[in-house]
Amino acid sequence: MGSLRSLRQAAGSYFRLYERGASSSLRLMRNSNLKRINGYCAKPQESPKAPPYTYSHRVPLHKPTHWERKILIWSGRFKKEDEIPETVSFEMLDTAKNKIRVKVSYAMIALTVAGCIWMVIEGKKVSMDFLSVCSLQRI
């Protein structure tokens, strides 16, 4: 038992020393240039330049198609097709499409309610006709 415990302690201390040495060498590699490690003496590298595709604060624009122009008019954003600019923002186009979706859904609700009422009226007409036919057959 005693030898097993001492073996564990020795292995633990060995791994702690190994980790300490490995972490210090990694720290040196991170802080220094690769060329210095190889023994070359070179000036430090310049910081990388900003990429050419940096985000500008302009909103991306889109040239609307004929159908999208109709949507912009139907949504009430513009009165005539002549008033629509050459390019519009995607946000404006999405807003117009959402307004059209809402209007279409309201129209579908109204048509569904009207259809239900019409079916009730037609069903009552049929039942009245059916009752009148049945009463005539009894006589």
From TrEMBL:
GO terms for biological process: cellular response to hypoxia; neuron apoptotic process; positive regulation of release of cytochrome c from mitochondria. It comes from the Eukaryota. InterPro entries: DUF1075. Its main location: membrane. One of its GO terms (cellular component) is membrane. It is a single-pass membrane protein. Keywords: Membrane, Transmembrane, Transmembrane helix. It is found in: Membrane. Coiled coil: none annotated. PANTHER family: GROWTH AND TRANSFORMATION-DEPENDENT PROTEIN, PROTEIN FAM162A. Proposed to be involved in regulation of apoptosis; the exact mechanism may differ between cell types/tissues. May be involved in hypoxia-induced cell death of transformed cells implicating cytochrome C release and caspase activation (such as CASP9) and inducing mitochondrial permeability transition. May be involved in hypoxia-induced cell death of neuronal cells probably by promoting release of AIFM1 from mitochondria to cytoplasm and its translocation to the nucleus; however, the involvement of caspases has been reported conflictingly. Belongs to the UPF0389 family. Interacts with HSP90AB1; HSP90AB1 is essential for FAM162A mitochondrial localization and pro-apoptotic activity. Interacts with VDAC2; the interaction is probably involved in inducing mitochondrial permeability transition. This is Protein FAM162A. It comes from Ailuropoda melanoleuca (Giant panda). The lineage of its organism: Eukaryota, Metazoa, Chordata, Craniata, Vertebrata.
